[in-house]
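Cross-posting from the chemistry board since nobody answered there.

I work mostly on the small-molecule side, so proteins are not my area. We synthesized pyridoxal-5'-phosphate and want a rough idea of how it might sit in this target. Sequence and SMILES are below. Is it possible to get a predicted 3D structure of the two together?
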Amino acid sequence: MRRDIAELFELDPTLTHLNHGAFGAVPRSVREAQDRARARIERAPMRAFRDDLPVEISEARQSAACFLGLPSESTALVRNVTEAVGVVAQGLGIGPGDDVVVSTHGYLTAGWTLEVRGARLRTAAFDVDAGPDDVVAAFAAAVTDRTRLVVIDQITSPTALVLPVAAVAAAVAPVPVLVDAAHVPGSLPGLDVESLGVAFWSGNLHKWAYAPRAAAALWATPEHRESLRPLVTSWSHGLAYPERFDLQGTVDHSAWLAVPEGIAAWEALGGWEQVERNAELLVHGAEVVRSALGTPDPLGGIPSAPCLRLVALPAGVATTTESADALWQQLYGAGFVVPPVAFGGRGYLRLAAAPYNDEDDYRRLAEALPAVLAR
Ligand SMILES: Cc1ncc(COP(=O)(O)O)c(C=O)c1O
């Protein structure tokens, strides 16, 4: 790990952390800002909930919108992307008799959130090495005359691909599209949500924008905003979107209050230059691991995310969820935090690159893998 940067975080220094994408990691300065926010509330809870929180949450929400390049009236704070999926499903009144499209690369909680409402999931299937046209065709083929919503990951969770969201949205129109952009804020340069041609977009701020968990942004086009309501009905009830998402009863709002500090940490760590440095490190690091394993590059025509990348494991390794799980435990036992992924009958490692990583992290993993795999 890069010691100077790792010192800004509170990660266990005895482990090699190559999985920033999963749950993020909160810099100390951000955790302290959240602690201060909690302490302020505890000094005078009545005043905090009545008078201070509405103002402070509104400021945090506006800083998130500004960071994402979005007008403040378009963007609400929610806790995480899965909550945003629930909000959208509720707003559209999705239920029995409706079809919803997800993909084989989609994050499972999004599909489950729609399924528990009684919707039927139809799945767009494509391989890791597919091209953009295959992705568009797979989504278009999954749409029926009962489809009420298409959910697409902008960066896929298991496979770290950057999907062609705008082309898919154009192909499935007029069905509304919800973009699961959990990994996008702070990690995907050139983001222009409003040009994607989608109805809804939601991204976590607690992965690559260094906010505390749980903090996410939900954006919607003007025609959908009126129908969107928070899942917890509380004292913001009578307000317009997005203010009506601000107060969620007596939950802990401190993660939202520390969003501006998370964004400040992202900037202090180098902003987009830092992302570019991580992307180069990851291409190189993945190649080091891949050549140690002697496996082919799994990628085809879809670009990999700047911050996350797959390396294929040898044939027969981690090809099921159970064997991927067992390998995860073995790697963890050897001091490596890196997720094996079983996808389409193959096993992969999903590597991340965060500011605290350096070349040595990937080299040590490459050196340790033969012994771990031999067990
Ligand atoms: C594509 C995607 N969606 C959603 C999530 C997480 O969901 P949530 O933030 O709702 O816990 C992840 C987490 O890694 C993800 O990769």
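Reply from a structural biologist on the board:
Welcome over. Reading the output above for you: The longest helix spans residues 45-67. The chain is about 40% helix and 15% strand. Happy to explain the token format if needed.
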